């Protein structure tokens, strides 16, 4: 019998020891935050539905007791990809990690108070006074709330009287912000600086270039100034205060479905179900709403001014002459490019932000015209088509650039007697240092061309398609000379012979020529399909 008592006493002692309990520890708010944003690798920038992601690194302080504990990191991004999370700086490492699925909401508040007391307050229809009493929550919030009061069981808000339910406290585990938690163990306990790093869905960025053309020089030479902005979007409901901000340019290979892995926590509303109105003989009263007046017209637009870090792109943003206080610096990241903002930046919830990353006052380039003749274009008659006017330059220091240019939009302005006017918009791809940069402006009103087949053919080697002669008529109505690029087709599909100025450029056959003022010319060449 004494042995049994000793065994029972030992079991009770073990059950009440710290080893049987796990203390809940709340991590501090982040003291240092770094946000690195990656573009959507498979689509264009969409500020209303960003499909890129970010790597977020937060430094927080935790005070651990001796033994087992659960650390709660409150305020992580709602788009957090929990499987990517890493916590460093803990002596005992991470035993288990969890993503809390529920946010503090009316439904979660009711569910967390199931079986506990609340206070219900009603308005007495006879006196008009509020009356309160204690009640016990007896059902979950998935169709209605039933309370046990001194009068029995009652459904909330089904009496037709004004009433409200007050809760004395928030149930354990509920938070208004998303929570990530981990289990850990520390032999001695203590205070530690830990770093939480994770990926989050719902970010994106793009570059936008504002280019100002100067007065044209001789022989199509053209100088310009260029100012570029990084536009960042955060679709999460959490802000990141005074963060070290970086963006990564280049296409990253991503195999995981980050959108599916993110699964943001939800705050469920109350859905109260009561009996139908009216009676069973008459049926339910249909929902009839009076005709509502139309909304008032929008107020007149105010004079807009630039807010560089705001959520709206405003007209004066294009003032390239304005001083730029902060420019993002470029760094190598393997085959990718990283742009780091040198000062802390607040990435606001559900907002846009713009940061300047490039300012070049004198970019030397040239105005050229581009046209295309397809191999299969066998028209013998047709009208002339306008060539496309482009601004080109070399991405090197000699021409005033020499920095990586991430893909994005381009807006081009040109001075005139009426002030600066918009002359073109384009989207450019990623341009590394050393490549030729092309910006399409508009269709020409001076240089026109027409491609036709002459009807002449000649045989090729056995098993190959025949050669066909093509003719391109070009006319330059301008009072200045013009440089023309005539693209024939891809090197994978066609072969070209018997023409001067033939070059290979970006995987295509290109004929380059210069047209004199007022000149008309015909270019013939032979082409065959490979």
Automatic annotation (TrEMBL):
Keywords: Signal
Record's signal peptide: 1-21
Protein's name in the database: DUF4139 domain-containing protein
Organism: Altererythrobacter ishigakiensis
